[in-house]
Request: fold
Amino acid sequence: MIDLSTTIGNAWFPSPLFTASGCASSGKELAQFIDLREIGAVVTKSVMSKPRHGRPTPRMAETPSGMVNSIGLQGPGIDAFLSHDLPWLVSQKARVIVSIAGETIEEYSTLARKLRSAPGISAVEVNISCPNVENRGLVFACDPDASRRVIDGVRKTLGGELPIIAKLSPDVTDLVSIAKGVVDAGADGLALINTVLSMVINLDTMRPHLGGKTGGLSGPAIRPIAVRAIYQVHEALPHIPILGMGGVASGRDALELILAGAKGISVGTASFGDPAAIITIQNELIELLSVRGFTSVAQAVGFAHRPVEESENS
Amino acid sequence: MIDLSTTIGNAWFPSPLFTASGCASSGKELAQFIDLREIGAVVTKSVMSKPRHGRPTPRMAETPSGMVNSIGLQGPGIDAFLSHDLPWLVSQKARVIVSIAGETIEEYSTLARKLRSAPGISAVEVNISCPNVENRGLVFACDPDASRRVIDGVRKTLGGELPIIAKLSPDVTDLVSIAKGVVDAGADGLALINTVLSMVINLDTMRPHLGGKTGGLSGPAIRPIAVRAIYQVHEALPHIPILGMGGVASGRDALELILAGAKGISVGTASFGDPAAIITIQNELIELLSVRGFTSVAQAVGFAHRPVEESENS
Amino acid sequence: MTNINKSSERLIATVVSNKRVGQYHQILLNVGQMVNGCKPGNFVAIKVGGDNAKMILRRAFAISRVSHSGPYGGSMELIVAPFGQGSKWLCAQIEGATIDLIAPLGTAFGIPTEPVRALLVGGGYGSAPLFGLAEVLKNRGCRVDMYLGASTGGKIYAPMEGKRSVNVLKIYTEDGSMGERGRVTEPIPGLIADGLVDVIYSCGPMPMLRAISHIVAGSDVVHQCAVEESMACGVGICMTCVLPVADSEGNVSMKRSCIDGPVMDGSQVMWDLVGKIPEAHA
Amino acid sequence: MTNINKSSERLIATVVSNKRVGQYHQILLNVGQMVNGCKPGNFVAIKVGGDNAKMILRRAFAISRVSHSGPYGGSMELIVAPFGQGSKWLCAQIEGATIDLIAPLGTAFGIPTEPVRALLVGGGYGSAPLFGLAEVLKNRGCRVDMYLGASTGGKIYAPMEGKRSVNVLKIYTEDGSMGERGRVTEPIPGLIADGLVDVIYSCGPMPMLRAISHIVAGSDVVHQCAVEESMACGVGICMTCVLPVADSEGNVSMKRSCIDGPVMDGSQVMWDLVGKIPEAHA
Ligand SMILES: Cc1cc2nc3c(=O)[nH]c(=O)nc-3n(C[C@H](O)[C@H](O)[C@H](O)COP(=O)(O)OP(=O)(O)OC[C@H]3O[C@@H](n4cnc5c(N)ncnc54)[C@H](O)[C@@H]3O)c2cc1C
Ligand SMILES: Cc1cc2nc3c(=O)[nH]c(=O)nc-3n(C[C@H](O)[C@H](O)[C@H](O)COP(=O)(O)OP(=O)(O)OC[C@H]3O[C@@H](n4cnc5c(N)ncnc54)[C@H](O)[C@@H]3O)c2cc1C
Ligand SMILES: Cc1cc2nc3c(=O)[nH]c(=O)nc-3n(C[C@H](O)[C@H](O)[C@H](O)COP(=O)(O)O)c2cc1C
Ligand SMILES: Cc1cc2nc3c(=O)[nH]c(=O)nc-3n(C[C@H](O)[C@H](O)[C@H](O)COP(=O)(O)O)c2cc1C
Ligand code: FES
Ligand code: FES
Reply:
């Protein structure tokens, strides 16, 4: 038997497999295909203060082993989320990580305040890959100072109760320094990686294909970037739990990210190809861990960083 | 008939299709498969001052629709290059863009000095995605100031004769500002994009697979990132010629990058799958351009940026 | 639990046959019991490209019709246009090949409880689900007229057997190569003016659906249309397939065409806002 | 022009047959005139996964042997171990399937001008090119002994017909399931000490090649080995497939195993530096 359980801050999960924010909607849609209690947690679509229509269509383009999306955080807003979506998840006995997104530092804090008193939440994921309307639309996650301030505000508002997972963008020159900044500001864990800024040109219209022009690249194409990001950050901050994601579509992919340093794995785009992917991945991961002699997921976390033994060196 | 010719600075090329640096070795190896005179130019493997062994093997891992490499700039050094490789290319009547790489700002200038008097070179591509040994190994292309200084040194050494193409890395927060910096410093053109920093963990050894640990992701997987980079930079600097690259494997891919703003296209990884890929791509591009009513490549460059017409808006 | 995707399941189906019909492929899949849950309007999401494919998303196809008892048990028919690499791959699958699919997905055409006069309008492969629908309507005692349109005759899908359930079948092509020359939408205003139609069921390109919606606007005719938006997941989790839909109070929201559609009330779709975003929420 | 990749070309070949032999697949491809350029030791680079594949690199396989006249013209045989997704795809291709290949690539085994006593040592599928080589050597009047090794009997490839050209064929398996129990390298020191060998030709896993090189070191025996390094391009343009090789003056450089190999002089390969980098250039 493999002990699959994992922790992020003071939150405990029976499995390291999570949905990825924005890739499971509110959870209801997947319930026909998987038992939500069997996975680590449902990470909800990033919720903002107000309801939002998101970006114009087309919102996606498939690319080799990947896809580019520009959804633009369509959602019902925090109040509707708390009165409808969250209670449903709780009623299903699913563990829930709520992802929040804002356009100002203040908005993040406001969201955190509303979550504070909501029952049934295991952790808060703070999606800082959003344009900061107060600073020329520069994405928070690309600005070390703004990243820190967002997390600082959320930390202060939440107090010590709920673990905070800061979700970072790979589109930066120095990921490690951004990671250190948000950890200093009070993040208990890091989610790596959000999508990679991309574009597809439509050869019929000969213009950018997506309504939002640019979008985020996800899926197996970006897995090597995710592995690098996780490895780098785990090397620099070995004690900070990492929720790894980016192109995980099989147990072998999940194990690759775990060996690089992830304590949990979010499955995003793979669920579009197969809504039960997360369960298949979980089963494959168990098999791969046991073949390698691991008795727990925890043993494999960051295993690729172990020092080289003399015998290997010769 | 489509006019395929293109220019970068004062250099003229009969075709917009080039090899990509490091993906055609010195040109000799491809000559069995393609006529080197038929393509725009051979962009040589980045050459350094001294001969170099490069990184330990394994040097590559295939990933979904891509590959990660860590060759580490193995090469014969500039003197051997100038006495053997370059004369051979010139004897074949191939047009040549020489790619140079250095570990110090001084090394780049030294290389430029040696190229200055070498006959048969159309342009110099300056690969600044190298670790700067004088600054904690920080990659030049990730440091706006170092990037600028490299190009400034090369410009001063070369004088006005040879066009300089600065090759940038996508692994930065603000690509446009780096692009502006090197253009201010004297670059005539920009090459976008170099590989994306990545890693693959070997599930047997459970360690990083590549001898050099991290490597660069290339191939179709990164095409959407390349398109975005080219689009962004062309938007900001519409008059600066861009040599576009990243995952081009067909005429449609080449056209996508051209519409985004590339005046020339380098074909890299696709040549590994098919050494004659560049010729196939060239033929497909001609067909796609003519179907769309273009009579020259030049007309299509940056076409995706044209203002939206009223009729489309309704 | 919820009702979303109710009775949808993933299945490895076998290709029973694959025939070329005009510019389309008529593909018959052995899906067993799954047919019991399939209704006209539902669609299927198919994994394309095989095991090593660089294509990671499923492709959506309308279920043309299902047969409960065949030589192989329940089977499902699709009418597929070889368009891009995914649909071409599907069209290249031969008898005996296995297909990974999820079905039934999405909403179905609403069936009136009373016998009504129904007009079924199909564009291109959009006619596929209309023949199954015609059968159901006919069994309910409806009068069923079917108007099919396409740019050219090769793109008209109208199988012999399908015509049994239809009172009148008219074909329009833009190049006049089959049926009458013109657009399938042209005769509709006349039919409505003459009071010959209670309900229009439509399936085809978005501009056709939009045109019909504009035609019926102001009349009493109900318009149920099956929309076609680009879908990444087909099961409601990605939010790519949205279009602006007004509720009865006129509040517009971006609805998912995979679970709130593909069949929608044409009068509620805000056609002029498709591809745009409505005013910000108040 | 240059001699690199001379006579290599790309060809769409047809699968003539695909048979399972032990744990391998023996795949026969119709390649026509191409056989004229193929020599023992050369390899072929094959595109895997079909049109929509996420795999972008070719896979290298030794040319086991070629036949100039068959019912279908020139043909080429490969012995393929179903290892990862690419080789499994190849093993799944049936008669009539088309295969995109580039061949002949790389260096060939050097053939002595005089009749010598040759020992051919193969590990696993490494025996594949040795049977073709044996034939050539036999025709030159050489004495040809062949020693094959593998972990288990299913991994020994030794076709009946192949044995014709061989004087002695010995098989070693680590689990003793076929031939003698033990490693194929174990008897070699004895043979050398007894002066029974002039040239060793080897093909198989790198540790086997390395062990043989160490055994022959100091003796007069020539060792030609076919190395196997991970290759991205197979034609010399990517520099992924390198290993450290010393020239006659002892200068070490990283040579490409695709164009300077796969057949190399075992005494020049710096086995202890494989996977490392030599001292920096002076
Ligand atoms: C509900 C629904 C029902 C459909 N029914 C049918 C049918 O019965 N017969 C039929 O031939 N086609 C039908 N289509 C269209 C069909 O899904 C597309 O032609 C197909 O997905 C194209 O995939 P491709 O790989 O060939 O093209 P590509 O252009 O390579 O596809 C790339 C991506 O774009 C999406 N895409 C491309 N064209 C369309 C399109 N027209 N609509 C939606 N997504 C698209 C694909 O799904 C894929 O994700 C239907 C679409 C929807 C949404
Ligand atoms: C010169 C040469 C001759 C060869 N001859 C044979 C032969 O006759 N029969 C045979 O079965 N195999 C042979 N191999 C090994 C064969 O190339 C690999 O088994 C095959 O490439 C694995 O591909 P895959 O997709 O199945 O595995 P994957 O692990 O999915 O391959 C991923 C990548 O790693 C590379 N790779 C993986 N294993 C090897 C390996 N052992 N050697 C080199 N590259 C590897 C692949 O080429 C591919 O680029 C030879 C290799 C070389 C270099
Ligand atoms: C359609 C789509 C919508 C997404 N929406 C969100 C979101 O709302 N919030 C967020 O933090 N990440 C969002 N993401 C990013 C994913 O959570 C994940 O970080 C990324 O897709 C990489 O993982 P994957 O390759 O497994 O999809 C979205 C991704 C996709 C594809
Ligand atoms: C094996 C390999 C070696 C490379 N070597 C160099 C190099 O020496 N100098 C350089 O500027 N870029 C080098 N590159 C980057 C390519 O020139 C190109 O920018 C990148 O691979 C993206 O294009 P592609 O997807 O078409 O390969 C190399 C790429 C590969 C795959
Ligand atoms: S296709 Fe994913 S929500 Fe509709
Ligand atoms: S495999 Fe590319 S140089 Fe040898």
Notes: The radius of gyration of chain C is 18 Å. Chain C touches chain A through 39 residues (CB under 8 Å).
